[in-house]
Amino acid sequence: MANVLITPAAQQEFQDLPLPIQRRVRDVFARLQHWPNVSGVKALTGKLAGNFRIRTGDYRVVFRVDGATVIVWKIGYRGDVYD
Length: 83
Known about the structure:
- It is a single chain.
- The protein contains 2 helices and 5 strands.
- By secondary structure, it is an alpha+beta fold.
- Strands 1-5-4-3-2 form a 5-stranded mixed beta sheet.
- The protein starts with a strand and ends in a 6-residue tail after the last strand.
């Protein structure tokens, strides 16, 4: 079982989300505890290589893995999250 760590910036982005989206993102956090047995994860390329994303509707949760820790560092709308 992996430990899921949410950075302060990602925590703020989470709090700014509408409540229904917050519930869905919380479900993503619970799924990430089962890393690496998580479906729907995509490895990112280019300047974000080494990171992963998982989607929930039109929102993305971007994270990296450090040993047994999943570090969520970005949460946002699909078009804006990769900037």
